[in-house]
Amino acid sequence: xxxxxxxxxxVVSLFSSxxxxxxxxxxxxxxxxxxxxxxxxxxxxxxxQNIKMxxxxxxxxxxxxxxxxxxxHFSIKNTTNKIQKRVLFITEPTLWDIELFLISDKxxxxxxxxxxxxxxKDGKIAGSYPELEITLEAGEKVDIYIRNTSPFHxxxxxxxxxxxxxxxxxxxxxxxxxxxxxxxxALLLYNLFIFFSIKDKNYLLYVGFAFFYLLAQIQHNIPINxxxxxxxxxxxxxxxxxxxxxxxxxxxxxxxxIKEYYPRLDKYLSYIVYFLLAVGxxxxxxxxxxxxxx
Length: 294
Prior knowledge:
Layout: H1 2-15, E1 18-21, E2 32-38, H2 45-49, E3 55-58, E4 60-65, E5 69-78, E6 84-90, E7 97-104, E8 107-114, E9 131-136, E10 141-149, E11 153-161, H3 163-198, H4 201-221, H5 230-255, H6 258-261, H7 263-281
Parallel strand pairs: 1-5
Antiparallel strand pairs: 2-3, 2-5, 4-11, 5-10, 6-9, 6-11, 7-8, 7-10
């Protein structure tokens, strides 16, 4: 009987959408959330609170492209006899439109709305890590609601962290990004130096590929508002994906000398490259390539 009750408790805990805080140092990076897909994008938070969410998901959100709003919900309970402070933290700083709500007794305690499609009063893009500080009294329980809207893939991780862990995460990720972008810039400058030394145009094509690939990665890993204006986003950043594909294809064609061995294929590939460059130049193409360092 004792074994049966233990197994029942484990099963309930596995599918429970409540995080139990039992000490002052724990962070939570593996838990279950309730999920509801509002395809109409018309439901308010109050209406969502009255809906029983039967679908479950892990805190590693990988839903692919979904029309409408994705709503997530879970609860946090402080079972200690002391005040506990945590941070609701989303690992991606470049989401399109995400809103966080901290609810107690069905009333909003605090909220945050950020994203590459959200603008502040002074016209700047509200791009940053979505995060919300949580203070729990002894024995207190609160609800967390998350609304995410995106024309691209819904890919991010929800965490409940200590303030210290959030700071450490940002330092580590920024260090990795610094190394990653530094390596790309080094390759770009190295090939540019070789081009000026031997005047081989193939190296200039590689420089073009590296430059636009760098911009594409910046778009997926760094909040745009910290670097560029909205005009820059709509043109150069928005077209960077198609430009790097075009330059990479042209570089490969020249490097492999396809024209000599497969002249017909070279002709077709050249047409494709010119088409890509034209479309990218006029800024009418925005390819949502999900390349991210998580």
